[in-house]
Specification:
The chain is built from 15 helices and no strands. It has helices at residues 3-29, 33-59, 71-83, 86-99, 114-129, 137-142, 155-178, 184-230, 232-245, 250-261, 264-274, 287-303, 308-311, 314-340, 344-373.
Length: 374
């Protein structure tokens, strides 16, 4: 048996172990009994996949270690226990989506249901993600947009990138001022001012972004309601076409559309969801929550390069700030591998090098400006 096949079998087995462990934890943490049962079913199917790859290994005389989730899976499980299942759901869903066709090209699994099951897992998670989120933490983090608008509802990724923003920007600011050879207490004041200014800016940006989104959604709903009042038959026809596009027969679609349109509140809820693609129970989340979490995450990262200046002075405080920031940069880089799957050492080192490089540039600029202005 080729070594590449052995590695592939072991990788497939480990991925399924991770997935099963994550689904078991999601089931434990989920408040909805119905959704918890879905997670348990997914875990059961992943365990069947584990058994499949273990049989392949045994048939070829290959030994394998005891089942144990990887550090990535263990980290996600810990986050789900602390913050709730919604915090990691998008990260798991994205990984499932990326891996849904991984078995299609593997000869051992071609005649099994494994590829179809992985596709089904992706579809189920997508449906769960669309459900309204309850509680403070989930929607607060999931709606953070600003400079990370492209991430959608991935609360974990938003948290890491928000804190990383604070760390990189404040480290560069502090090192830029340090390059001008100013005193330690001045660096402390500069760092705290940079923390507050950056956190307020991020919070304001989030508040404006979410508020604007909510106002736009309300306007679209108001327009839809006016159209319903003026021409309910036309709205019924729109619902009919939507239902037909989902696979209903013309008669079924017509009957359901007429039933929905008979009650205005019911019809508006359906039109808002189906035609406008807006969840009337959410409307983009709370602007205050999004602003508060954005402020906290940025401040958390921005505090790291400032901490040594509370306790040390002179060059030792600058060196300590660089060392502490370098460790934090590596950590944030490592955390991004939870949703990218990239090697920790490579990504963490890259993040550390880029952050320190930025700090080095501002330090050099500050040094020459300090010399020129004295």
């Amino acid at each position: 048996m080729r070594e590449s096949d052995v590695i592939r079998y072991l990788d497939n087995r480990q991925n399924e172990i991770d997935s099963a462990a994550q689904y078991h934890e999601l089931a434990k943490a989920e408040s909805s009994a119905q959704i918890a049962e879905v997670y348990k079913r997914l875990a059961k199917e992943e365990e069947a996949h584990i058994n499949f790859w273990e049989r392949q290994l045994k048939q070829n005389g290959i030994s394998f270690p005891k089942r144990k989730p990887s550090w990535r899976a263990q980290t996600l499980i810990m986050l789900a226990k602390f913050f709730g299942p919604q915090f990691i759901l998008t990260t798991i869903s994205e990984r499932e989506h990326a891996d849904q066709n991984v078995y299609a090209a593997q000869r051992e699994s071609k005649n099994t249901k494994m590829t179809a099951q992985e596709h089904w897992h992706t579809k189920l998670l997508n449906e769960i993600e669309r459900l309204p989120v309850k509680g403070l933490l989930g929607p607060g983090l999931a709606k953070i947009e600003g400079r990370h608008k492209f991430i959608g509802g991935n609360a974990l990724r938003a948290s890491v990138l928000g804190a990383n923003d604070g760390l990189c920007s404040n480290l560069s600011l502090v090192m830029g001022v340090a390059g001008a050879a100013v005193q330690s207490h001045t660096l402390l004041i500069t760092g705290l001012a940079g923390l507050m200014a950056g956190a307020c800016s991020m919070a304001l940006g989030e508040w404006v972004s979410v508020t604007s989104a909510r106002e736009l959604a309300k306007r679209e709903i108001s327009i839809e309601e006016d159209e319903f009042d003026l021409h309910p038959e036309g709205e019924a026809e729109e619902l009919k076409l939507i239902y037909e596009a989902k696979g209903m027969s013309p008669k079924e679609a017509t009957d359901l559309a007429l039933h929905m349109i008979s009650n205005k509140a019911q019809a508006m809820d359906e039109l808002t969801r189906e035609e406008l693609g807006i969840n009337p129970d959410d409307l983009g989340g709370s602007a205050i929550e999004a602003a508060a979490f954005s402020f906290a995450l940025f401040a958390l990262g921005a505090l790291v390069p400032v901490l040594p200046f509370f306790f040390l002075s002179g060059s030792s405080s600058i060196i300590a700030s660089l060392i502490l920031s370098a460790l934090a940069l590596f950590l944030f880089g490592a955390l991004t591998t939870l949703f990218t799957g990239r090697p920790v050492l490579i990504v963490g080192s890259r993040q550390m090098a880029l952050g320190l490089g930025s700090a080095g540039l501002t330090f050099t600029l500050g040094h020459f400006l300090g010399v020129a202005l004295t």
